[in-house]
Amino acid sequence: MSNDRTAELLAAVRAVESGERSADSFFTEPAPPARRPRPAGREAAPQRTAAPAPAGAAPRPGRGGPVTVPEELRALLVEGGAPETLGRPVTETLGEGAAGLLRDDPWQLLAVPGVRPEQADGFARALLGDEAGPGDPRRTVALVVHLLERAALRGDTVAEPAALAEGLARHSVPDPDDAVREAVDAGAVLAFEDTLDAGPATAGAARPETEEPDEETERPVRVLFGLDRYALAEESLADGLARLLTTFDPSAGPEEFAAAAPAAPSPSAGELIRAAAGSGLVTHAGGEAARAEVAALVTAARAAGLRAWALTHTDDGRERMARLTEAATVDPDDTPQAESAPDGEEQSGPDTPCATVADVLAGAAGPGRDAEGTLAVDLLAVCDAPQLDAEAAAALVESLPDGARLVLSGDPGVLGAAGPGQVFGDLVAARCCPHVVSRTPDPGPVGELVSGIGVGELNQVEAPAKEVVIVPVTDAREAVHRTVQLVADSVPRALGIPAEDTQVITVGHGGSAGTRALNAALKERLNPGPGRFAGFDPGDRVAHSPAPGRTSVGTVASADETGLHLSCADRRITVPPDRVPETVRHGWAVTAHQAAGLRWNAAVVVLPGDATAALTRQWVYTAFGRAAHHLSVVHGAGDALPRAVAESPGRARVTRLRTLLTESTRAAAPAPDTPEAPTP
Asked: How many CB atoms lie within 10 A of CB 671?
């Protein structure tokens, strides 16, 4: 391919990205009036596997190690006008046969993370010339899958037909409905017809007395489309939860467990113990203070001889839960049921039955597995349950033995999982198991403020010891200045909370008051240095995200040829040099999504005026709730803040789990007793 041709292609791509040209201007041929048949001999487009990995999943093959990019692929990328640096991610995503796959179907480039449809169109146009039309079945199938993958990044496990059609129309697909059918026929996308639990559609309408209602045909049905990865996860999860409900035998449990409820440290803790004693599946909703109820549950279960463990989303949460289980007392003599681990030891021994979900799924910590491969537990309590996506939850439930108890506990007001699915919310909405709502409020002015936000009210609270401080600003530059001043000077001087115990939380990474700008200013003030180790210096605070939805905040200890050595909670982590750019950021400032499951003595929440569109009640609730004792709000959002709290609870995710749970639990329910037919 000539240099002139490459330059022309890149210029065209930039024009589309900037909005100067539409996507269909790439194509010289007119849009076909009817469905374009698949060329003879061409196989259906293989399903792509570029969807984000679950929170507990291992990195994709090739990540963290050397990847050999075939020369044939390098040459093809150059021919298509794509940068050679794309060779590694293409190889990781599509495998060693990527060159042949892309030669036959250039739009498979969309499977590579970060590649946009306009770029894939340009690549296809360079390789196929005039053959690359907007209605090419290869293009439409790739776009349908791409849109579903984008929906997964927003938390959806499936998409509705109207949303897909709208997205396809934006990319100049001539017949969106036909494109979706093409994707289903190719096996790249699955179609679902879920019966809505709304009773007969004709309820209330006149019907002849002799006509019986037909439940199968009269119930409303919604059509959804999804990738089989998430469909299988939700179906497996629904079946697994139904299995726990039906295989549990309350009469087989130790009587001492239920008997511990009256001696529980709070009425809500006692209610939780009674619920878990009588059901194989329980949901439990509450704020930070409600974690003590889970600790009391686990302690009571272990005192009764059950193998009980508590899981959390983060290492920070694990440490907090370990302290609570050590302090929990549930027996009449107020005798602690767990001993404190010696300082410096890993908090995962038998006396501190706490681990993270990711570690348990990876086999790195937790209760271990029995001879059949299931987790060696009788009761598993999962805190931070709203952070469970469909795949991680399915893997966890599949690992539980028949007859085990599962308690999912969390704060329903926080931001949801990084991966697709809303497991906790769907399970609560399905009403298929006991649900315990904690009556223990989070303490102090911060707790009072956050509780109000949870119900849509942004109240003024009394803060005699400056537990809550509002710092008004007029622009982003002032917001950055005041944030640095608060972290470095005001909070340590006025409240005695050092900078290392204060966390800045802002709306996004970009922008004039995003994490990048704030981290640059905070590093200059708190730990100036040349960034000699891939932009980092010893003492820098960092946010380490080894997988989507898993973030630990720690500090850089040192660095050498083996990588960047981090100290995060009680872990020592070495990040290989080639993994540093994609998994490590400076961490004085993080987003609310990164902060979910974490907690600090003080939090400074930055609300710049240019980020008001991103504010929701869930976001504000999560960000403000990261502060244990002091909250400063650098406020430049004006009336967008109270409006977001009152009017924008957060977008509901599109999932199938609630429907699947209803169907699974109905199918698993025992049939009513009926008299036996007489024997002839």
From this structure: 5
User: Cα dihedral sign for 536, 537, 540, 545?
Assistant: positive
CA 407 to chain centre: 19
Short-list 353, 416, 406, 360, CA closest to 384: 416
Cβ-based neighbours of 643, under 8 Å, separated by 6 or more: none
Q: With the CA atoms of 486, 490, 495 and 499 taken in that order, what torsion angle do they form, in degrees rounded to the nearest 10?
A: 50
Q: Which residues contact 376 (CB under 8 A, 6 or more apart)?
A: 307, 367, 368, 369, 370
Residues 67 and 87: their CA atoms lie apart, in Å, by 9
Alpha-carbon distances of 477 from 19, 248, 636, rounded to whole Å? 29, 59, 11
Q: How far apart are CA 180 and CA 202, in angstroms?
A: 30
Specify the range with the lowest mean pLDDT, choosing from 50-64, 124-138, 172-186, 547-561: 50-64
Q: Is 658 exposed, middle or buried (0-12, 13-18, 19+ CB in 10 A)?
A: buried
**What backbone phi and psi angles, to 5 degrees, belong to 203?**
-60, 130
Percent of the chain with pLDDT over 70: 81
- Residue, of 470 and 209, whose pLDDT is higher: 470
Task: Look over the chain and give the mean of its residue pLDDT values, rounded to a whole number.
Answer: 85
Report how far residue 313's alpha carbon sits from residue 547's, in angstroms, rounded to the nearest whole number: 13
Task: Give the whole-angstrom CA distance, residue 91 versus residue 318.
Answer: 37
Q: Residue for token digits 């100049």?
A: 172
Q: Which of these, 627, 569, 619, lies nearest to 603 by C-alpha position?
A: 627
Which residues, including other chains, have CB under 8 Å from residue 196's CB and lie 6 or more apart?
219, 220, 221, 222, 659
The Cβ of residue 567 has, within 10 Å, a number of other Cβ atoms equal to 15
Buried b (16+ CB within 10 A) or exposed e, 282-302: bbbbbbbebbbbbbbbbbbbb
Strands 563-568 and 571-575: antiparallel
DSSP string spanning 33-78? SSPPPPPTTPPPPPPP--SPPPTTPPPPTTTTS-----HHHHHHHH
**Residue that is written with structure tokens 């930055």 in the block:** 606
Contact between 69 and 82 under an 8 Å Cβ cutoff? The reply is: no
- What is the rounded CA–CA span in Å between residue 291 and residue 289? 5
Q: What is the 3-state secondary structure (H, E, C) of 488-526?
A: HHHHHHHHCCCHHHEEEEECCCCCCCCHHHHHHHHHHHH
Q: Largest Cα–Cα distance in the chain?
A: 93
Class of residue 407 by CB neighbours under 10 A (exposed 0-12, middle 13-18, buried 19+)? buried
Contact between residue 60 and residue 53 where contact means Cβ atoms under 8 Å apart? yes
Q: What is the pTM of this model?
A: 0.82
Q: Cα–Cα distance between 283 and 382 in angstroms, integer?
A: 10
| Cα 601 from Cα 282, distance rounded (Å) | 31
Instruction: Tell me what the mean pLDDT of segment 465-472 comes to.
Output: 96
User: Residue 596 has which token pair?
Assistant: 């979910």
Distances (CA, A) of 566 to 171, 436, 547, 552, 597: 43, 39, 16, 10, 20
DSSP helix/strand/coil, 568: strand
Quick one: tokens of 305? 């001889």
What whole-number distance in Å separates Cα of residue 241 and Cα of residue 248? 11
pLDDT band at 81 (very low <50, low <70, confident <90, very high): very high
- Reduced to 3 states, what is the DSSP secondary structure of residue 114? coil
Nearest to 622 by CA among 586, 585, 591: 591
Q: Specify burial of residue 124 (Cβ count, 10 A radius: 0-12, 13-18, 19+).
A: buried
- Integer Cα distance of 97 and 46 in angstroms: 13
